[in-house]
Amino acid sequence: MNQLKNYLVWLLLLTKRYFKKPLFVLTILSIPFFSLALKNMSGEDERMMQVVLFEDQKGANPIADEAIASLCKRKSNAIQFYEVSSREMMEREVQNGNAFCGYYFPADFKTHLTNYVKHQYKGLPHGHSIVECCFLEDRAFVKLANEIIFSEIYNDFILIAEKHFMETSNFVKDFSESDWEELLGYRNQYDNLSIDFFKFYYADGTENTLVGKDSSSSYLTLPVRGLVYVLILLAAMTGAILLFRDIESGVFGSIPLRQRSVLSYLYLLIPTGISGIVGFFGILISGTTDSIAMEIYNTILYVLMVVGFIALIQKLFRNLNQFVAILPLFIVVNMILCPVFINVQSAFPPNRYIKWILPVNYGMRGNHSLLARMIMLGVGLIGILIFLLPNLRRKETTIKQ
After folding, report:
1. What angle do CA 184, 189, 195 make, to 5 degrees?
2. Cβ atoms 277, 232 nearer than 8 A
3. Distance in angstroms (rounded) separating the CA atoms of residues 73 and 50
4. DSSP codes joined into one string, 305-360
5. Distance from C-alpha of 401 to C-alpha of 399, rounded to nearest angstrom
6. Coil, strand or helix: which one is 289?
7. Which H or E run contains 52?
8. pLDDT (tens digit, 9 = 90+) per residue, 84-138?
9. Distance between CA 324 and CA 86 in Å, rounded?
């Protein structure tokens, strides 16, 4: 009972000491700060790419009406379509930089589409073209916008092309309107099948059950998770620094040998656990999680793994100066090679192997990889054993004596 009381006293005293350390406090405060900053940067008022649309004779072009309505309803912060009431306004939006590019849909859109399919280019509004695009600078993004817009027109476009082929083909004689309706019915059977054409999976082979459910999430919030795990790692390393200092200063001299291992483990667990709790809420703030239960589970495993990992490093580097020397390099390597902000694997192929010894890599994979979670648990248990084995050996020696 007295021993448990001592552990609780140490827990309170160590927690108080950590909150007096500027590096630890700064690390803890950085987690919600960066989460909120990236969240605000990706808000609805800061959409990534804007595209303006204008339709001539709105209401008289069913195909263009439906395409523009569908584009404007797209829920995504990566690309945003919106409609204006005049061609001059569309051009002004592009000139002012409010939109990356603008698209003009002419009157009699279906007629032009039919003539285009029949290669009857005379009378088309823009030579051999139908839709006009206005932009200040030719960027790869414009080609992406072209594909998105054409995808909205494609269904009507291909129906016109099909009908034209059946009417003019030498392989089909006396193709009537009823034949067309029957053919269209067969086509619609496949259009209405509720089958997912694409199945997504992660590069490690596990299925995608988390990413991509929220189409309003911006890619600017994606680094939040990696950044949080880096800051948790930094907090754990501050605990190791304090542990080194107290060992070298003789603080442990007055503590019984059997209690030193537990106290050493608390030195690492307290800052890592506190930063893990703050990090969990930071990830929730950013909106990059779809399963709170899995997020809690992954955070606990990551905290245990980081403590075990730092315990291994602490046993390897028994000198404070050596440990402090590798700290900034180790943090930077985790940010670059895991990766948090950029992917350097194509430029540095050995990274595919190096990242498997870095803690942040497992934290980022843990939500969707059973293997990563098992490794985190294994390293966490190794860390516990590092601190418990000396106690077990001492107990065996005492029993023999």
Report:
1. 140
2. no
3. 13
4. HHHHHHHHHHHH--SHHHHHHHHHHHHHHHHHHTTSS---TTT-TTHHHHGGG-HH
5. 5
6. coil
7. strand 50-55
8. 999 899 999 988 888 888 999 988 888 888 888 787 877 777 667 788 888 877 6
9. 63
* 3-class SS of residue 6: helix
**Position 89: which residue type?**
M
Residue labelled with tokens 């619609």: 188
Residue 243 makes CB contacts below 8 A (sequence gap 6+) with: 264, 267, 268, 314
**Left (φ > 0), alpha (ψ -120 to 50) or beta: where does 340 sit?**
alpha
Beta bridge partners of 55: 105
Q: Residue 193, SS3?
A: coil
Pairing of strands 80-83, 101-105: unpaired
Residues with Cβ within 8 Å of 339's Cβ and at least 6 positions away in sequence, in order, are 226, 345
Residue 149 CB partners (closer than 8 Å, separation 6+): 67, 71, 103, 131
pTM of the shown model: 0.58
Token representation of residue 348: 């540095």
